[in-house]
Amino acid sequence: MTEATRKPDASRRSQRSREAILTAAMELMAEVGYAKLTIEAIAARAGAGKQTIYRWWPTKSAVVLDAFRLNAETQEDEVDFPDTGDLDADLRIVMRAIADECNNPRYDGPARVMIAEAQHDPEFGAEAREAFLLPAITATKERLRSGQRAGQLRADADLDVVVELLFGPIHHRWLHSTAPITHAYADQIVDYVLAAVRP
Amino acid sequence: MTEATRKPDASRRSQRSREAILTAAMELMAEVGYAKLTIEAIAARAGAGKQTIYRWWPTKSAVVLDAFRLNAETQEDEVDFPDTGDLDADLRIVMRAIADECNNPRYDGPARVMIAEAQHDPEFGAEAREAFLLPAITATKERLRSGQRAGQLRADADLDVVVELLFGPIHHRWLHSTAPITHAYADQIVDYVLAAVRP
Amino acid sequence: MTEATRKPDASRRSQRSREAILTAAMELMAEVGYAKLTIEAIAARAGAGKQTIYRWWPTKSAVVLDAFRLNAETQEDEVDFPDTGDLDADLRIVMRAIADECNNPRYDGPARVMIAEAQHDPEFGAEAREAFLLPAITATKERLRSGQRAGQLRADADLDVVVELLFGPIHHRWLHSTAPITHAYADQIVDYVLAAVRP
Amino acid sequence: MTEATRKPDASRRSQRSREAILTAAMELMAEVGYAKLTIEAIAARAGAGKQTIYRWWPTKSAVVLDAFRLNAETQEDEVDFPDTGDLDADLRIVMRAIADECNNPRYDGPARVMIAEAQHDPEFGAEAREAFLLPAITATKERLRSGQRAGQLRADADLDVVVELLFGPIHHRWLHSTAPITHAYADQIVDYVLAAVRP
DNA sequence: TTCTAACCGAGACGGTACGTCCTGTCTTAGC
DNA sequence: GCTAAGACAGGACGTACCGTCTCGGTTAGAA
């Protein structure tokens, strides 16, 4: 066997077709949803050959994940986690931002697709987690640790669990659509969680 | 009305084929996973005609949901939520039971399928929520209300939020596979939550 | 094996449904053609159960053949072959009658169906031949024999061949739709054939 | 125009699969007959995808017709109609050749299929007539015309009718299987017909 | 007159094939 | 050597009918 898995020369890759494909994928995602999204339709809409897609992405979900990444990069919302010294206020800001994302179709749609895809493709799940979830978790834990050092949290509080106490409820409500997600709700969670871990 | 959608006569439905189909669906789910599950394979394994499936279920996910339901009914785990008067102990029992389910492939697999499917089929999601999630939420809320009346919870605690504070974190950890789910973890959550809502 | 092929009791047969089925078959033949004709559609149109058809007829072609028979019986055109003594005139009458039938959709359609069906079902072909073709051939041969005895045909003429010289050409033109079939054409054939066999 | 019917690029057609499909069709025709012949079985036997068949042929009968054509081309029997000057002898040769074909399963089968198919699909009938029947008719007419010029036929003989007087009887006997088709019979027809049209 | 066996309409059933759609690979021409 | 285009083998889709079966309801002799 002579080099069965030929790997293409990335330096000669057409940037034009890459963007056309990812844009087409995003558009079709919005129009027909992930389940009815086909490689063929993406290629047709992008004016690209199917082979060009298969050459650069292994699966449909990889294309979609890349499309989401492109979409997210476009946004200029890489807000750093605030640290004003007032933990309560900082958490409120962040939890309200998450609530806003839950209500923004621009995030809601892609996020649901990624959750769904991750359930039957663990590798994809790991990648997506790495790219989208862990940064937020890490930043939150950082801020909590800073608050802990400042004596605003019990010294023995398990920060991994505290992060989950913050993200878990809002995530649960969003994922199962059990109730609307408001700023008031975001504040409520912060209240309960801080009540639990205050020294 | 042109009477387009002829509806079959449910009274003449073959119980034998219904069970064969749902059993085949469960088995194939376990063997190849939801994504590679085909109606054709279910019919073949069940010794049924495809039409018999299409006659009684609108989509693949409906078959699978029904299969899960049959599977769940078979189990004799319809444990009533305990109410010993000791809220702390009762919650621990329940949260540990949930932790056990997260680690039991018999529940883990189907549950992930349902979560995934629900994300791109809201109607399916609503049905699944109704059948599997709400009963647990309602029972938990009931127990919390009872505890609240007994003065073990703050009178102004929002029980919907408290339920989410309990279920959200464990659910989050399970869904994103961020860490193992142990009895100790279950206990931890109960501790934090009760600390937050104790009078 | 105990009487595997249960034969139904013909005396209890419902005349009403028999006629409804054959009528429906005739109508559907005219509407959609033999190839697209289905037992299911016949049953639905006739307001009969499928089993009632399968009980009394072995195949679709048997139903259709019966329908044609019913149709033919309805007609009162069982014209006896004329024998005026003038063979030329008598043959013209008969050949013109055949030409008329070729141009009459009432005969053309069914006849084509029977020809077609007979090609891939020899038994059906034998039955159809017996019922529809042989009577005409026999009557014609009879008339030719009478003419032969009267000295209007060569004594050594092979009547089977003469019949085919009469029927073959018109049949050929009809079957292959190579040219219109007129009375003039019918006369022409009689002219040529009589020229060939005149003493 | 919405460009509904995308037409494939014939220049890129796979010759290999075309032949495999037509060969498979021929074989299956011989094995199970036209009625039980399925596109699916042809594709399976040919190792081709069903779409490849549907891409290049509109119907089952079109595939079969093409298969016959390929079969006929393979044969090296494109005998030119003889013209020795002796019309009687030449016609005998041709009529005997036709008789032989009637008795040769290689021709009998396909021809019956085409006759049958032509009866409920006039377009197919037209194509088949063009490809298989008209060449023979034309050649025969040509030879007759040559004989007519040589004074062996009456000057006023209608050659279209004379051709039908030759082909019709043998065709009739073959189609309805009313009697065996022998060389003697072929000769007999030539005798009668020439008797009718001799000057 | 009641019983009972068969027919009847209806339609669910296990199947087969349909014609369409999409997958992932391969081939061709163009730049 | 990447690209657009699209033919190819393969396989699942959801539909239409096949011929068999089972279900009540009706009908017509036999008891």
Automatic annotation (TrEMBL), chains A, B, C, D:
<dbReference type="Pfam" id="PF16859">
    <property type="entry name" value="TetR_C_11"/>
</dbReference>
<protein>
    <submittedName>
        <fullName>Transcriptional regulator, TetR family</fullName>
    </submittedName>
</protein>
<dbReference type="GO" id="GO:0000976">
    <property type="term" value="F:transcription cis-regulatory region binding"/>
</dbReference>
<feature type="domain" description="HTH tetR-type">
    <location>
        <begin position="15"/>
        <end position="75"/>
    </location>
</feature>
<keyword id="KW-0238">DNA-binding</keyword>
<dbReference type="GO" id="GO:0003700">
    <property type="term" value="F:DNA-binding transcription factor activity"/>
</dbReference>
<keyword id="KW-0804">Transcription</keyword>
<dbReference type="InterPro" id="IPR001647">
    <property type="entry name" value="HTH_TetR"/>
</dbReference>
<dbReference type="InterPro" id="IPR011075">
    <property type="entry name" value="TetR_C"/>
</dbReference>
<dbReference type="Pfam" id="PF00440">
    <property type="entry name" value="TetR_N"/>
</dbReference>
<dbReference type="InterPro" id="IPR036271">
    <property type="entry name" value="Tet_transcr_reg_TetR-rel_C_sf"/>
</dbReference>
<keyword id="KW-0805">Transcription regulation</keyword>
<dbReference type="InterPro" id="IPR050109">
    <property type="entry name" value="HTH-type_TetR-like_transc_reg"/>
</dbReference>
<feature type="DNA-binding region" description="H-T-H motif">
    <location>
        <begin position="38"/>
        <end position="57"/>
    </location>
</feature>
<dbReference type="InterPro" id="IPR009057">
    <property type="entry name" value="Homeodomain-like_sf"/>
</dbReference>
